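Sorry to interrupt, but I need a hand with the structure work. Could you write out one complete protein record for me, on any chain you like? Could you add the entry underneath, on a fresh line?
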Amino acid sequence: MRIGSDVSISPYTYLVTLTHDVDDSMFGAEADPVVIEDRVWIGVRALLLPGVHIGIGGVVGAGSVVTRNCPSYTIVAGNPAKQIGMRSQDLSYHLDYHPLFDTDILLRN
């Protein structure tokens, strides 16, 4: 999995990177990373399935199920997620978000 800079991932979002081969007699797991580029905004309770790539500046609507790649600056929503609009390409913000539990601090202790 790769997550870019200035990405906003809302609560209860699922980024799924593993699945199973339904035709495998051993029900083997298959990994396929999720890639989220810079300045993406993912709404609450979105579900991104294995192998999905969200391009720069993309927006995923709340409750959406993303089954396919989303080109840069597209706004997608629904189940399955479909393009519903385009986002401005003039993005220059930098998020200054500090989570309640900073994982860097937790890993050092």
Q: What stands out?
A: The first strand starts at residue 2 and ends at 3. The first helix runs from residue 103 to 108.
